[in-house]
Design brief:
about 350 residues; 14 helices; alpha+beta
Length: about 350
């Protein structure tokens, strides 16, 4: 668009204003400045670019420059006031539009993730943000040491990286409850993998969980909840992996689906450890380290800062108290499942 395409209404009265200022040397009145602000707002709402609008004003200035004697300084000052007021109105309209867009985006995200809107209406709104809810989508959630919002430096950094890499690929990046979210088509694993990489770097060692691809609007909610559950499991199980896939953790929801049964297993298999000197905690940590490193005693001892002899003594003590030998494959599965259950149920810190 060139300055010739700018409707004359945005320059209405400008030539006469310059002529009057040149003749009198006066400054613009408050009403005149406010009228230029209003024109700037109208131009922003109409979708014209500020650069072209300013060029149109400068072109009009050359055409309307007074031929009669007058103060060039006053005329230039008036041009400056007009353009400044016009740009201020334009930017004010832009800020209002951005706030409205952010509010609409936030409302849409809340309705999408909580399922509080009619699905037909939700699908229509989704297209505005580049999502087609008839397709499958997967959600990745990044959690860092700090809470993040839309304007946070980390959020902007990740968004710019995604746009530079993928452009417009039906990706929605947002924040919710202090976490960064990326919603992407379910068949574009590379998008979520790249998001995880960038989010990990931007959050300085945060953790990212990726839900499974699911169809429809309800699928977005399900994938989001799977990612949140994966983050919660990682905290309770003290997992070290920076990137978690919900598909790899499906066994844990199965184990905790019957909480009472899991509590019974923990108390039955590990309850006798409470009779040890120092309580169950040290021996439970020993079992956890032993199983986490593949039942390699030397590695488990290193992780616990113990000698191999001290670790072996603890394993023998566990065998004595529980009747189950951690080194025996026949007993190992029960003990390891009970240790996982203890972590998930926060035992022995929480009574079962």
């Amino acid at each position: 668009m060139t300055e010739r395409d700018i409707p004359g209404q945005y320059l209405d009265g400008y030539a006469q204003l310059l002529a009057d200022v040149s003749a009198t040397g006066r400054r613009l009145t408050r009403d005149e400045i406010e009228s230029r602000r209003a024109l700037g707002e109208q131009a922003a709402h109409a979708g014209h670019t500020l650069r072209v609008l300013i060029t149109a004003h400068l072109t009009a200035t050359r055409v309307a420059w007074p031929d009669t004697p007058g103060s060039s300084d006053s005329t230039l000052a008036a041009v400056q006031q007009v353009i400044d007021a016009f740009a201020e109105g334009y930017e004010r309209a832009q800020r209002v539009a951005v706030r409205q867009e952010e509010a609409a985006r936030r409302e849409f995200i809340d309705d999408l993730l909580y399922g509080r809107s009619d699905l037909g209406r939700l699908a229509e709104r989704a297209e505005r943000f580049g999502l087609r809810l008839s397709h499958t989508h997967a959600v990745a959630v990044a959690q860092g040491p700090l809470a993040y919002d839309e304007g946070a430096a980390a959020s902007r950094q990740v968004e710019q990286s995604l746009i530079a890499r993928f452009g417009d690929r039906s990706i929605l990046l947002t924040t919710k409850d202090g976490r960064m979210l990326c919603i992407a088509p379910g068949d574009q694993d590379d998008v979520l993998a790249y998001f995880a990489k960038q989010a990990y770097a931007a959050t300085e060692g945060g953790r990212i969980a990726i839900g499974r691809a699911q169809p429809g609007a309800g699928g977005v909610v399900q994938s989001y909840e799977e990612a949140l559950n994966a983050l919660d499991l990682a905290d309770r199980l003290e997992l070290d992996d920076p990137v978690l896939h919900a598909a790899d953790l499906l066994v844990y929801p199965v184990l905790t689906r019957d909480r009472q049964a899991m509590a019974d297993l923990v108390l039955s298999a590990l309850g006798p450890l409470t009779g040890a000197r120092g309580g169950a905690g040290p021996l439970l940590a020993t079992l956890a380290a032993y199983f986490d490193c593949g039942c390699v005693a030397a590695e488990a001892a290193r992780r616990l800062s113990l000698s191999v002899r001290a670790l072996t003594y603890r394993l023998e003590r566990i065998h004595q108290l529980t009747g189950a030998n951690p080194a025996d494959p026949a007993h190992r599965y029960t003990l390891q499942t009970a240790v996982i259950g203890a972590r998930l149920l926060d035992w022995p810190a929480q009574r079962l």
